[in-house]
Amino acid sequence: MCTQTVFAKHGLSSPSERRFIESVKFPWREVSEASAVEKGPGRPPHWEMVFWWTRKPLISARAIIAGCILPEDTSPGGFLKAIGIGGKSKSAHNNPPFYRFEGVRLLDPFAGFGSIPLEAMRMGIEATAVELLPVAYIFLKAVLEYPSKYGKKLVEDVRRWGEWITERLKEDPLIRELYEDDVAVYIGSWEIKCPHCGRWTPLVGNWWLARVKGKEGYARLAWMEPVVEGDKVKIKVVDLNKVLGDGAVKGARVSGLRITACGKEFRVPESNIEARRERGVCLLCHQPIMQIDPQTGKHYTETKNLPEDIKGRLKGYVKFALELYNKGLGYGTSKELPPWVSETPARQRLLVKVKVRQGDLEFEPCTEKDQEKLDLARKEILKMLETNDPDIPKEQIPPYGHKGGGLRFPTEIVESWCEFFNPRQLLTLIKLVKLIREAGKQIEQEKVKEGLSKEEVFNYAEAVTTYLAIVLLRYVDYNSLGTVWNYGGQLPAQVAHTLSMRGIAIMWNWGDVSPFTKMSGTGTMLSNFDKATDKMLPYLTLALSNNVNSSEVLLDDATILSKLDFHKKFDLIVTDPPYYDDVAYAELSDFYYVWLKRALSDVEDGRLMPKFLPEAFFEKVGDNWVEVSTQWEKYALSEVSLNPPRLGPNAKYEDGVKHFQNLLNSSFINMASRLVDDGLLVTYYAHTDPDAWKALLEAGWNAAGFRVTNAFPITTETMQSVVKRGKLSMDTSIIVVWRKGAEGTIEASELYNLMVEESAKRARELMDIGAIGRDLVIGTLAAALAVATKYREIKVMGKIDTKTLIDNYVYPATYLGLAKALAIKAELKEGVKQPDAMFYLLVKSILPGAKKKTLDSTDLRIFSIGTSLDLNMAIKSWKILTGEAEPGARVAKAKAYKLIEPPSDERSKLAEMLEVRGLNPENPQIRCTVDALHTFEYYAATYSREEFRRKIEGLTTTYPSYAEEALTLAKILAKTLPKEDPEWSLCKRIVEYLSPQQKLSFTEEGD
Fold it and tell me: On the chain, which terminus has fewer CB atoms closer than 10 Å, C or N?
C-alpha cells in the first residue's frame, strides 16, 4: 500500500479481511477535528451556491470511503496524510487526496447535496447518486455531473451569461424605476388598519437596525423610532455612531432595549407585535389589536364571556388582515372578501432603506416615493394575473403545513407560493426567470454556430442554464417576505435568508433586496454570480478535473431503485438516510422548485412546457408531458420521513411512525439487494433519540439482515469545546458500519453477558486513546451492537423485538461495560451496581474536567435506560440532577439537566450542596448511594482521620449497602477523575483516610 504517491492504485482489500473503518485504530477523532473546520470559515465554496439543510463535511466522506476500502492494518498516520488532513490547507477538503481507487463502485441512495459521491469521484471511484426530489436531483447535477463533464469553460460561460442577464434587467425601464442605484436593501413590515381608531399602524417585530459587536465593545448601534404626525406614523432613524461617534459606541453598555453611552441613556422602542399571542398594539391610539369575528367584522379584546359559537369563529385580527390582503391582490383560489370589508385592512410598508458606503451601512427612512414603487410593481403584477402569466408561481403550499411534523407554513395567511413575496420582489424574480429562459435559447444558438451536434448543444445549454437558475434560487432565498433583518449579525448587519428557520414564515422586518448591489452576507443577484464564478464553480471543476470514471445522477426512489440497472451491484454503499424527525424536504424545497421549474422550462400557449431536465418537472403520460405542480403533491408520501400530517387530517403520530418505518425498512432491504456479499454499508445518523436508534436497527438488522461491525461519532466540534461546555450532546453524526450476514440464534441472557464483556473491552481501548464524551459512549455502544446484530434471532421465551433488545439489553450492557472498564482502570475487581451510582460515575467519567456537566433530555433518557435509573426519583426526590433552560436556537429551547456535584473541596460549599440536595450533614437520611458519597465527601473535608472513620462506621452500621457502594464509587473516582475536579481530591482523601491498615471489611483488596 502506498499512501504518499498521488496515483497510488487500490482495489478493494481482500473480502475476507476487516477494513480499516472497522478497526479501533481508525482515526475518527482526527477526522472529527478536520470536519469541524468545514462548519466555520473552511466551508467548501460550493456550499454557498444555495442553501440546503444538511451537508456532510467532505473530509468525513473522504475518510469514510477510503477507510471502507483499505485493509485493517493501514497506518493511521499515513492514512490521515493521504486523505489530506495535516496538508497545506487547514481545510482538509482543499487538499487533494493521494488515494486513487480503481474498479470500485459506490452508491448513495440518499445523496442530498452530494458530499459522499463527490469525494468518491475525487478518488477515482464510480459513484451513483440517487435522489427522490427534483430539486436535490438538479443540485446533484450541478455539483457532480456538469463540472466533471465540461470543466473550466463552464466558469466563463456562466459569468458571461450572468452579466448578460444582469445588464438586460438593468435595461428594463420598469425595473429601473423600481430601484435606487445606491440602495442595497429596503427593510419593510406590515401595516394594519387599527380596528379601534381606523388609522394605519405599522407592526414592527424589532426596531433595531444594527447592534453589532466589534473586537472590543460595539461597532455599530442604530435603531428606528416611530414618530406620529397627524394620522400617520413616520419613521426616524437614530444612528448612534453618527450622534456620538464610533469611540462612544465602542464603550456603550446595552441592556435589552436600554443603551448607556457618554453619560446619556437611550431607549429602543418595544415591538408592537406578538405573533404567537396574536396581539398587536396600535402606535397611534395605543389600543390592543386582538381577535376578530370574520363573519361580522367585530373586534374583541376580551373573549372570556363570549358565546361559544362566536368564540369558535374568532381569528387573530393581524393574521386575518394579512389573509385578506392576499385575497384582495387576487393570489389565492378564494378571492371573495367578506361583505363588511370596504378596504383590505393590511398592506406592506417600507420602513428604512439601507445603503452600502465604503463597506459600512447607512440607514435612511423610506419616503412616500419609495412606497409608490411598491404600488407600481403591484399594478404590473395585477396585469400579469389577469393574463394568467405562467411565470407567477401560483402553486399551492401544503395545506397541512401548520400541523407540526417538522413543517411550519403560515397556512392561515397564504395559499400559494407567490404570496411569500411583495409585488416588487415577485416582479423582479419573474423578469429574471424570463431572462434566464431567453439566455438558454441564445446559448443554444451560439453553440450551433460553433459546429456542435444537436445533442451536445442542448446538453451544454442545459448545464449553463441550470447554474443561472441556481443563482436565481439563492436570490429568491434572500428576497422574500420570509426573510428577516439580522441587526446583530456580523459587521455589517444583513438580511437573514428565508430558509434559515426550520419552516417558512411571514416575517416582520423583512428585507427587500436589490438585484444590482453587492452586500456582505446578503445574497443579491450580483453577489450570487460572483460567488458562483469566482469560488463555487472553480472549486468543483478543479476537484473533479481528474475524474475519468462515468458516474451517474438518478431521480429515483431509494425504496425501489427502479432506474438502476437490475443486475448492477456496488462494492460500497455510503449514505445519510433520513432521520426520525427530519426536515420536510418535499414541502420546504418547493420554495425552490416552483422557480426552478419556470427557469428551466419553456412557455407555449400560456403554459409551461418541457425544456431542460424535463424529468424533474413533468411526467410522460402516453405521448404527452404533464406538468408536476409541486413536490409535496407527488413525492411527500414517498419521502422517508416522519410527518403524520402527510397521511391525512386524522393521521396520528403512531401512523406516521409506522409509515416512516415501512419506508426505511424498504430502503435498507433495497440496499442489501444492491450490495455485493462482502461489501460494506455505512450510514450517517445524526439523531440521538432512542426511538430513532431503534428505527435504524429495525431497518438495518431486523428487516435487511445487516450486522453492525463498528460505530463512531463524527463531530463538528473540537474535543476542547466538548470539555469546556461539559455536554454530551454535540453537532454529531453517528457513523454505523454494517455488513451482510446476521445469522443464528442466541438466548438473550447469554447475549447480554457477551455484550457486557465486549463493551468493557472496547471501553478500555477507547479510554487508552483518550476518548471522552459521546465518542466514548458511541464507541462502546458499537461493541454491544456488533455482538447483538451477529444473530438473526434473540430469544427470551420466543423471539424478542428490536425495542426490547435495545432497551433491556443493548443499552444496559453498554453502560455496565463502561462502568466495568472504569473499575478495571481503578484496579478494582468489582464496580458499582446501583443505578444511581452507575449513573453518577458515568456522567462524571464521560465528561471529565468540565466544571458543569449537562445532559439534554434525550441523552438523559438514554443514560437512564442504560443504568435503569428512575429519573423521576433522581430529579424530584434524590435531587441528583436539576433542570435548567438551555439557551439555543430561537426556534426551540431544549430542557437540559445539570449534575449536582461538589463545586469545590471547601466545607461550606459542600454543606450548601448537601442542603440543595435535601441532606442534613450532621444527621443525614441516606436515600441512595450518591447521598452516601456526598456525605462522605463532606466528612472528609470537615473532620480529622479518626473522626472521619468514626462517622463512616456509624453510617455503615445504619446504611451498609449504600455505604459499601459509595466507598467503591469513591475509589473509582479517585483513580479516574482529572486532578482539576474538586471531587478527585475529596475521593482521594476518603481513600487515604481508609488506609490499608484501617480498611473496613467490605473494601476492595489491592486498592
Answer: N
CB neighbourhood size of 263 (10 A): 6
Helix (H) or strand (E) holding 956: helix 945-958
Kindly report the number of other CB atoms within 10 A of residue 420's CB atom.
Answer: 27
- Which one-letter DSSP state was computed for residue 336? P
The number of distinct structural domains making up the chain is 2
Determine how β-strand 706-715 pairs with β-strand 732-740.
antiparallel
pTM over 0.85: yes
What range defines the domain where residue 327 resides?
Answer: 178-419
Tell me if 527 sits within 8 A of 513, measured CB to CB: no
Buried b (16+ CB within 10 A) or exposed e, 394-419: bbbbbebbebebbbbbbbebbbbbbb
Q: Are 514 and 540 in contact (CB under 8 A)?
A: no
> Cell digits for 645?
400530517
Contact call for residues 825 and 976 (beta carbons, < 8 A): yes
Gap between the Cα atoms of 479 and 514, Å rounded: 8
* Residue owning grid cell 449504600: 962
Per run of 10 residues, the mean pLDDT along the chain (length 1007 residues) is 40 69 91 86 89 91 97 96 92 92 96 96 96 98 95 95 96 95 94 95 95 90 96 96 92 94 94 87 96 93 90 91 82 69 90 89 95 95 94 94 66 89 97 98 94 94 98 96 85 80 83 90 86 93 84 96 93 92 88 98 96 96 93 95 90 93 97 97 82 89 94 65 47 86 92 96 88 82 91 89 91 93 91 94 81 79 88 93 58 67 94 95 93 96 94 93 96 92 94 68 38
The reply to whether 189 and 128 lie within a common domain is: no
* 183 and 123 part of one domain: no
Measured distance CA(647)–CA(195) in Å, rounded: 39
> Is 294 inside any structural domain?
yes
Helix H segments across 172-220?
173-178
Beta strand 208-213 with 218-229: parallel, antiparallel or unpaired?
Answer: antiparallel
Rounded Cα–Cα distance for residues 540 and 141 (Å): 12
